[in-house]
Batch of 2 targets.
Target 1
Amino acid sequence: MLKVELRNISKSYTPGKAVLYPLDLTVNPGELFFLLGPSGCGKSTLLRLLAGFISPDTGSILFDGKDITSTAPEKRDAGLVFQNYALWPHMTVFDNVAFGLDTRKIKGEEKKQKVRAALEMVDMQNLGDRRPSSLSGGQQQRVALARAIAFRPKLLLLDEPLSNLDAKLRDSMRNEIRRICKEAGLTAIYVTHDRKEALSMGDRIAVIYDGRIEETGAPWEIYRRPSTRFSAEFMGNANFIPVKIIDVEPDGCLVETSFARMRCALPAFPVAKGNTCTAMVRPESFNISTAANIPNSFKAVIKTMTFQGETGGWLLAADGCDLSVLELCPPKRETGGELFLSVTPEHIVLLEDK
Ligand code: ADP
Ligand code: MG
């Protein structure tokens, strides 16, 4: 399994207009790694650098410790899958999958066997004689995937591979792609702007914003304990609450908001008594109760509720601050009614004010 390292990589297409600022990144062997960020942040540029279609302005790319920065794309041993499947319309499914083998001079029985194995991997073994135009979008994307893995690359590069599929198919293909990467022992780098794709499929995620890596971490970490306001907002709904640090202890700190004093976990950056910063709390991290006798609880008044079926989105007014709260199986409550919110210390994430 392949280890991928980027060292001090930067890129601009027009002089003086950086698309990627100098960045470092390590993708571990066998990892399904996500490059996640909004449109235009430089994700595809990063993937094209890895594929070897373009060269970086500075820095080096290492595969298993070997510098391949100037190695030609076809010598990089990477399979590619793009949003628009890029299948040859005049060729059968079998020949499309065989394409990468032909260019690598793999012939005869070995070629047939490798194509069959790849088609089996994507569950398309019976459709080898069909033309791409007679297949659904999902099936075409499976063929593209089979073509990318048929020559048994060590690295798979995927650029928004599910963007052209409808929502339901996207969900099932997520599991499929992950299964295939793991079964084939691939190191895979997957570009998307869809946070749910990254959260549900990824081993680790790099959040990219405006040509820079905001942070890197496991899905759980990035969602629950983001380290910047951008990634907190990009990964999901969040409340941002101004706080003042009242006390710092080895295992946590005490903060003051306009509506309560609360304990929270220590942040990764240094804090001292008297500092101000921002607390991030996910809407689903609040508990709603009718009693105040638990730690970190405070009173709030119901403003509105948006019923969403399995969940309800409440907008509540705490003293000096509106909060959005997500509740599973929401009961009926009256607007203007009072209740108590609480939140455990580890669900309050302090973010440095910039
Ligand atoms: P993403 O994949 O995250 O949407 P891209 O890497 O495609 O972003 O693009 C990043 C930035 O670089 C964008 O501002 C885009 O307009 C610009 N860009 C991409 N490709 C080229 C190119 N070939 N020439 C000039 N600018 C480009
Ligand atoms: Mg792109």
Target 2
Amino acid sequence: MSSANQLLAEICGVGTDPVRGGYSRHLFAPAERELREWFTAAARARGLRVDTDRNANLWAWFGAPGADAVVTGSHLDSVPGGGAYDGPLGVVCALAAFELLRAEGFSPRRPLAIVVFAEEEGGRFGVPCLGSRLSTGTLAPERALALRDTDGVTLAEVARAAGHDPAWFGRDVETMGRIGAFVELHVEQGKGLIHRDAPIAVGSGIIAHGRWRFSFTGQGNHAGTTLLRDRCDPMLPAAELVTAVRRLAATVPQARATVGRLVPVPGGTNVIAARVDLWLDARVPAPGSTRALVAEITERAEAVAEQEGCTVEVREESYEGAADFDPALRDRLAGLLGDAPILATGAGHDAAVLAPFVPTAMLFVRNPSGISHAPEEYAEPDDIDHGTTALARVLRELAG
Ligand code: GLV
Ligand code: MN
Ligand code: MN
């Protein structure tokens, strides 16, 4: 019998990033397509029935598909230069848990499935949880299909090239309607389980979070001939905003605000940029506070743009309100897992998208590095095995 650790080893060479380190596995790029094929083969080898839904999410069914299903799973795409566990851990533990159930002759009373959601990280098209948002109808297909990657190619174009008909993308009442409960297992992405000295936790909720693009526009010009007083250089307000984001967020309890991506256009060493795009990721636990912080940051962006004779345009690219996982399910799973600790998280997940629609829960596996979205993300093999047995227990309880 193969363990989740062995399954992870099978994909450890797929999508390694020689430039950034870690993994870059982006929607419909060769590495991600290879992982889709790997998942399909691994699931079929375990006797699961695999299909792809209208929004390019993969499904593997333990028996016949049907209503009121207990669904687990996660994603296989990554952030640029990400770790090996964020996403794949939930998929390999699901496959290994299904194998355990199969081996013991488990006969579920409810349908049982693994889902692999598409583009959870938004690493290629900028909007996270594309597969689950499209399927639940929380993102309009017209908007999603028009999204462009950094090469200017639309989602519609890459989907078509990968064999998915964009005309089918959109709310999928039939597929989503089958989910009776959703349980996502995920590597813990902070230090919550290190502090609690436990291998597994049950999730309580996810804080509100979103992504905003700030485009500062000035005048592109020659770096050697344009005197400083004659410049409208959008790099200056962009730089000011980066430090203002930290300063403003530091005044709000528990706020997280990040500029992790900044792109000067056209981007030449001897060229004053014509435009600088920067992306803000903001997350604040107190209700209503995430957008309030962004409003303050926007005010500051307008002020610093004006000082340099530039303009700024702000666009909300995605927003996910706070998710509170089903309290009855949360407590039931924590009890089942020997009073496992209960943990809230600042990381986003497809589980947050599904939570308003179906009873949803999350299991977290300890990450001794406390680091995620970076190559140092880690989970001990023993803890991964704990994750598999915990998930199998949960599935047995919910579907048995
Ligand atoms: C996804 O992992 C996110 O939290 O952005
Ligand atoms: Mn992630
Ligand atoms: Mn993830």
